[in-house]
Amino acid sequence: METGILAYLAPALAEALAVIGTTLGIRRAASVGLSIISEEPAMRASVLALSFLPATQTLVYGFVFAYFMYSQHLPAAAAKYGGLVPATTALGFLGISLFVGFAEMFSAWAQGTVCADAVSLLVKTRGGIFSMGLILAAYEELFGMLGLVFGLLMVPLVV
Q: Is the Cα torsion angle 19, 21, 24, 25 positive or negative in sign?
């Protein structure tokens, strides 16, 4: 495979891993949420909010990483090296993209688990667990943010 192709596929791989984590996280929270909504339909807004929270890793962090890679870093690398991204730079982009992708994937999956636990307690606590569930899910969100920031900080080191 030409290294230029590898360099351009790497950010898409990061987004794909974020999508996998988001899908697993939402599936977990939404599955629990269905039984809660059937028991107490008034809890549907809380269930929907908690169930959708893992989507931020795909819709925000993975997308932002891919956007900056495709709009700034990859064109800059190609321009610097006369249109061809060298193998070492392409492998660097791949490694960083895998780092960001796995950070987003595991963050979204873990956040979905926390959200599912909060959803499961909505009826028992009469909705009182909602705000604490959001706060605890935000702890997992932090690792998605850190994955994005660290990834973007590392990219200039390989160009």
A: negative
Alpha-carbon distance of 39 to 127, in angstroms, equals 13
Q: Is the pLDDT of residue 1 over 80?
A: no
pLDDT digits (tens, 9 = 90+) for 33-72: 999 999 999 999 999 999 999 999 999 999 999 999 999 9
* Dihedral sign computed on CA atoms, order 18, 132, 118, 113: positive
Decide yes or no: CATH 3.10.180.10 for domain 3-158: no
Residue indicated by tokens 């809890």: 43
Domains of the chain, by residue range, sit at 3-158
Does residue 50 contact residue 119 with C-beta atoms inside 8 Å?
yes
pTM > 0.70: yes or no? yes
Q: Are 93 and 69 in contact (CB under 8 A)?
A: yes
